[in-house]
Amino acid sequence: MNVGDYVRLADTEIHFNAPDEKQNRWRSLLKTSFEIPLRAVKDAPPRKEHYPVLIYAPSDSSVSWENADLCEYLASHGYIVLASPSMGVSTRDMTDDLDGINAQALDISFLITYARTLPDADISEVAVVSWSWGGGSSLFAAARDSRIDALVSMDGSMRYYPGLVKIAGYVHPERMNIPLLFFTQGDPNLFEDIERYHDGPPTYIVGPNVLNAWIHGDLLTVNMLGMAHAEFSSMFQRRESAQRFAENQVADYGREDANIGHAWVAFYTLKFLDVYLKHDDSAKAFLEKTPTENGVPKHFMGITFRPAKRRIAGSGQ
Fold first, then answer.
1. What DSSP character marks residue 23?
2. How far is CA 121 from CA 48, 49, 50, 83, in A?
3. 156 to 74, 182, 289, 312, 313: CA distances (angstroms)
4. CA 22 to CA 302: how far, in whole Å?
5. Could you read off the pLDDT of 5-51 as tens digits, one per residue?
6. Quick check: 206 and 196 in contact, CB under 8 A?
7. What is the 3-state secondary structure (H, E, C) of 163-199?
8. Dihedral (C-alpha) 46, 65, 20, 96: value to the nearest 10 degrees?
9. Contact, 131 vs 233, CB < 8 A?
10. What's the rounded Cα separation, in Å, for the pair 171 and 314?
């Protein structure tokens, strides 16, 4: 597979039997990257083994393959990875409201059910990996789908739209008892003790802080000090012009730093999933070390871990 192979998937994401190249804006956004090879092999014969299932939930209105490099990397280490585009209830584009986030959450659950038809899928071990808007959708999916065993969120919207969590009525992060790996972007002005994030309609923004409320599941928070929001997606990195990169640039971290940061995000995601889906002791030992001990360059990453607070029987706590 190469970048162009993935781009062509968007031609038929609405109508499988009627390709529409004109509506595929990714053809122009990634036209200089078409021949860049990736690592997946199209139509490779399946192996007769069983693998945990990962659902990738993309960002607002995005394509399913926006993080193809990450998804291929995880698949190459013994995971089945499924993804679908981010769409609204009745429109191709996502709507930034409760209907939209519920639509994507239902798509996540649909893909888990679909995985049951795959002969090499082990649906007893399922996680959702997400970026941006998909992070909120994965939270909503996990709130009502007990098949989801873990969440990985790259600067996900659950942090920025707590008001949607509040008005949904059925999403209670304080009751969630599954592990969460949450990557944050390198913005020093966002702190978890600020309950109001002043950007957007108050109805959607004002609400309880999801990360603060996550007390009954293990929480690993990783602050990627030099990464801007868009740099969590490999395809968004490829499409970003020099001017756009400069507008979003964090301090003096350059493009190469963004690439290195993305690689460490992928590696820590893999180790986290290996701990909670494959129950790998060596991966657990890795996560218990400091970033420096694991070979992360200085000034790239900060990590905090908060173990789950175990419920006391009969106390409701």
1. T
2. 10, 8, 5, 15
3. 19, 8, 25, 30, 32
4. 43
5. 999 999 998 888 878 888 899 999 999 999 999 999 999 988 889 99
6. yes
7. HHHHHHCCCCHHHCCCCEEEEECCCCCCCCCCCCCCC
8. 140
9. yes
10. 22
**Do 154 and 265 contact (CB within 8 A), yes or no?**
yes
Query: 152: part of which helix (H) or strand (E)?
Result: strand 150-154
- For residues 27 and 21, the answer to whether their CB atoms sit within 8 Å is yes
195-234 pLDDT tens trace: 444 445 545 557 778 999 999 999 999 999 999 999 999 9
The total number of residues shown for the chain amounts to: 317
C-alpha 255/C-alpha 252 separation (Å) is: 10
Plot region of 278 (φ>0 → left; ψ -120 to 50 → alpha; else → beta): alpha
Question: Which residue reads 């053809």 in tokens?
Answer: 27
- In this structure, the number of other CB atoms found within 10 A of the CB of residue 108 comes to 25
pLDDT attached to residue 201: 52
Q: Is the pTM of this model over 0.85?
A: yes
Which of 122, 120, 117, 174 is closest to 147 using CA atoms?
122
Q: Is there a contact between 214 and 153 (Cβ–Cβ < 8 Å)?
A: no
Q: Sheet of 121-131: strands edge to edge? A: 80-83, 51-57, 121-131, 150-154, 180-184, 219-224, 301-306
The closest alpha carbon to 211, from 162, 265, 270, belongs to 162
Q: Residue 23 carries which side chain, given as an amino acid letter? A: Q
Residue 122 near residue 52, CB atoms below 8 Å: yes
**Burial of 128: CB neighbours in 10 Å, binned 0-12, 13-18, 19+:** buried
Q: How far apart are CA 148 and CA 313, in angstroms?
A: 23
Those residues whose C-beta lies under 8 Å from the C-beta of residue 157, and which sit 6 or more positions away, are 101, 132, 133, 134, 135, 136, 137, 164
